[in-house]
UniProtKB/TrEMBL annotation:
Pfam families: N_methyl (PF07963)
Organism expressing this protein natively: Pelagimonas phthalicica
Protein name: Prepilin-type N-terminal cleavage/methylation domain-containing protein
Length: 180
């Protein structure tokens, strides 16, 4: 054996440090892939909740203002436990309708939704009802652009609220459904 064969102590320490950096990088990549996989396997109940929120945001954001002249009811009105509005955004849901009237009613155990497809003439094309379990204790409130406060009720004669909020009492958070 020659004095130069093998690794010196310094070379060994450098190689161990590089190996530790490589192991830390692999552990981080593995952790990230596990988190991405878990996130992609979302609970089906959460998927329904997220899909409904997204659809309601789009519909409320495109609510027909009361100043719009039409043969069907326009505007947005609501109470603490109900919300009704008309949207012309019918894509993907009611392709043959000119407008869609959506009525939400919050019960103690579920959220009842009625969809009314309306033609330009004001005639009803069809009505669909859905009851969504898991939406217990939903309360609506409406943000007034005039006095900058949240209200428990809204009338069509007041125009459109700046925002609509749905607060679920079973969860400690709220969701701003739409901002006009």
């Amino acid at each position: 054996m020659t004095p130069r064969s093998g690794l010196s102590l310094f070379e060994l320490l450098i190689s161990l440090a590089l190996l530790a950096l490589l192991a830390a990088g692999l552990a981080g990549a593995l952790d990230l892939s596990i988190r991405v996989h878990d996130r992609s396997q979302t609970n089906p109940e959460l998927q329904q909740d997220l899909a409904l929120r997204n659809r309601l945001r789009n519909w409320i954001a495109s609510a027909v203002p009361p100043s719009h002249l039409a043969q069907y009811p326009v505007g947005l009105e609501g109470t603490e436990t109900s919300l009704a509005f008309t949207t012309r955004n019918t894509k993907g849901f009611a392709p043959n309708a000119a407008a869609l009237r959506i009525e939400l009613s919050a019960g103690p155990e579920a959220l009842d939704i009625t969809f009314i497809e309306i033609l330009d003439s004001g005639e009803t094309l069809g009505t669909h009802n859905a009851t969504l379990d898991g939406f217990k204790g939903v309360r609506f409130s409406y943000f007034s652009p005039v006095d900058s406060v949240w209200r428990d009720a809204w009338k069509t004669t007041e125009g459109l609220p700046q925002a609509v909020r749905a607060l679920r009492l079973s969860n400690p958070f709220f969701v701003d459904l739409a901002r006009f």
